[in-house]
């Protein structure tokens, strides 16, 4: 609830990605009690994954390489290139290689030597095409493409490429030649370049992980954990080292129920239209009854004016009582049924109006999450004083933190329902989604109202509201989460 008068807030969420990094820890419910259930059946967001160290992943990759090398009787270095070019799908590599080895190598840019490409050497001296130095033939090295260059030029070539961050994509120096230099070939020329060798091996490891569909680097700052899962789905994963949460499929902030393609399209649109939408991101509005300026200083959208005590909705400014407990009309956008027959200018205006409707609610819930973080800190301070005064223990007050965390978890999901709804086609499915979205929003605002008044709210009432809100959230996800 917000009751204070004020001007502009210093909170800015114009940078879309940075605004959501702080919310991932809300998905870790460390305070839950009760028996262990089969989460794959009860939780629509359940996802089976492991957090691995770089050493564990390197061992996993090497085992795959060794297995393929033994099955096809090829060198480990060649096996690595083939696996990397086929997204580490061993079965696919084996099938293609057994069917047509030469074509498989060419497709992986490992050009096999052929009689037509063999070089007949008539002299013991050659001139390097790069440095134009004439040297003994034993100073020259070639890949399978048979393009020969001196050892020093190969070494310099690798140093320059690695300095630019290139590793698995280092190709032959010959013009228009796309044949790749395998790992053992590169390392052989960097034997006395310890720091460059280490950098090259670091880059190749990152390339191998990025090309592996079952592996994802944790995007947390300075975190080396790698997430591993056999299923490639847009599900939430949380790093057990830095507590960073993200979508396993695309690596972006978790965005259920919106899928990966839609959320990227939405964030791009928000970035492109940010100037247009800036005017609606103000933190102050006038009370619809007494018209006094009100600043929103809490996460709850159920507002009560400090001047006239009028209860209204922050989003649509409508009387709070008119919202009812069953449906939030202000969360639903009413499209003009005759818009197809209007002028191009009218259609453009309607499109902007629709976008602003969803953007305002998306932005509002993002800001509410930030404000509820502040509410949680205030709650922690008040409870600490109570504990110090002998009014219960931390365990006695733990349910309030559980409620605050659940509130943030529900609101985070609600925020991402708006991009989902914006891109949905009109029809019965959208109507069902908007109904469930409205139900969830109503219960979230009820929970937010009670959390902000936690000290005067009956514990049983609060826990009942928590249960209702979470059931609304999981019901929506079960029906609309794309698995």
UniProtKB/TrEMBL annotation:
Which EC main class describes this enzyme?
A: transferase
One annotated Gene Ontology cellular component of this protein = nucleus
Main subcellular localization, coarse class?
Answer: nucleus
Q: Where in the cell is it found?
A: Nucleus
Q: Which UniProt keywords apply?
A: Coiled coil, Metal-binding, Nucleus, Repeat, Transferase, Ubl conjugation pathway, Zinc, Zinc-finger
- Give the superkingdom in one word: Eukaryota
Which transformation does this protein catalyse, written as a reaction?
A: [E2 ubiquitin-conjugating enzyme]-S-ubiquitinyl-L-cysteine + [acceptor protein]-L-lysine = [E2 ubiquitin-conjugating enzyme]-L-cysteine + [acceptor protein]-N(6)-ubiquitinyl-L-lysine
> Which residues lie in coiled coils?
437-479
Q: Name one GO molecular function term.
A: ubiquitin protein ligase activity
Q: Where is the RING-type domain?
A: 124-334, 128-172, 290-334
What InterPro entries does this protein map onto? Answer: Ariadne (IPR045840), BRcat_RBR_TRIAD1 (IPR047555), E3_UB_ligase_RBR (IPR031127), IBR_dom (IPR002867), Rcat_RBR_TRIAD1 (IPR047556), TRIAD_supradom (IPR044066), Znf_RING (IPR001841), Znf_RING/FYVE/PHD (IPR013083)
Q: Gene3D superfamilies, alphabetically?
A: 1.20.120.1750, Zinc/RING finger domain, C3HC4 (zinc finger) (3.30.40.10)
- The yes or no answer to whether the keyword Nucleus is present is yes
Q: Which family does it belong to?
A: Belongs to the RBR family. Ariadne subfamily.
Q: What is this protein called?
A: RBR-type E3 ubiquitin transferase
